[in-house]
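Z., the sequence and structure:
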Amino acid sequence: MIGEKSDREGKGVRFMKRFTLYLLVFVVLTLGAASTVSAQTSKGFVAGTIEDPNGAAIPNATVKITNLKTGATRETVSDSSGSFRLEAVDPGEYSLDATGAGFKTAKLDKIEVNAAQTSTVIVRLEIGNPTEEVVISASNEVVVQNSDGARVNTLGEREIRDLPVQGLNPVNLVFTLPGVADVGGQNGVAGGFVQGTEFSINGLRPRGNNQLIDGLDNNDNSITGQVYQPTVRDAYSQVTVLGSNYSAEFGRAGGAVVNVITRSGSNEFHGSAYDVISNSAFDSLTPSQKSQSLLTKVPQVAQNTFGGSFGGPVLKNKLFFFGTYQADLVRAGAVTGRAIVPTA
């Protein structure tokens, strides 16, 4: 009996070890797949050429970009034609350093990288000692993306924070873009067919849009649209809208690809606090309320959507944290009215 008990205990221990091993392998593979998908669809690209003062290509030049907020760096070397390309770059602001044998080091102080877009730069190096540095200030010129035919619009943190956004869902900012039509709700002609924000781009059906958060699927598989509604105001840094001719890596649908990018911590502590107030004191009675409900005063409603965010470094240039909080309080008073029923 003692031998049988020990044998059962041994089998139980071996089973638990195998189960733990399988579970660990599953978690590692899942996280790896998720990071791969995110890298494909929520990252940006930096590409360009390194030239000498006469416009000739400089091969084997070292190119390094540095994130201005986190200090993260990426590095590559130009090829025989002077071209370089950095893949899967986190959205944000970067500086770029380029150096080659016999040339001064050139430093671009600011490059904007957005999700699913290629930031193209042309760097001309001056002849001299590599220890000498030439700083090139960023211009305010509008940069046209010419690396592919994708039609991309990026709505940044300022637009998300400052523009009046219905329901605080940053995806509603798509209505500020050309080629976008509101076909849902009271203003549209096909309300209620998708979850969340309903819009048509380039005349395509709202069900043809692909909704992402940080490059990960956020589609309602039953009626399409957003399965999760991103309504925390200060949690997102940008909304990237790919209207047409985008890469096959996005797949799924033929309409727009809407990618909401979340915020993260940086080397500096930063935070915010806000209160979005919606109060009936600023409203007036509608003609329908006056003629049909015979109301003499506006129904009292007060809504406060308040919250904040805070983030910063845990280990400088290595580990960061960021968190948000938001609450929604609604208070409404009772109003008595009469309904007028038409007679035959």
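The chain is about 15% helix and 35% strand. Helices lie at 2-41, 157-162, 287-291.

Let me know what you think.
H.
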